[in-house]
What we know:
The protein is mainly β. The protein is built from 2 helices and 11 strands, in the order βββββββαββββα. The radius of gyration is 16 Å and the shape is globular.
Amino acid sequence: xxxxxxxxxxxxxxxxxxxxxxxxxxxxxxxxxxxxxxxxxxxxxxxxxxxxxxxxxxxxxxxxxxxxxxxxxxxxxxxxxxxxxxxxxxxxxxxxxxxxxxxxxxxxxxxxxxxxxxxxxxxxxxxxxxxxxxxxxxxxxxxxxxxxxxxxxxxxxxxxxxxxxxxx
Length: 168
């Protein structure tokens, strides 16, 4: 059984076999009652461009910010399966139109004093730029590296984009 550990504050969170379990929302710091939620974020590349999506006002957080394709883990799922589900739900791009290019290092984003997101980024190459959005996004763009500064992104997404652009 493979164990993946991630240091977070004064404790280490261990995920076994990359599977979500019912304890994924973990109290890291009992004094501050901080909750950590696991999220996957997928970045799609095509012809030296990367897909970004503008979050709608109907989403729970980060409205009108640009982001990748993201979703919360659900019980019994592995990270890659959740990423592929989210890609299809949010863009209608099928898994057969994707090649997994890289699994990036997990990052942590603290949103409020009591909420922390542990994000697992995936970088896929897409054979298509045809996107059909669902309710979570109002518009999309395929951008190149020099356009990054033109957008307001969700926290730490610009950092992920730069890593993906450097991979080619």
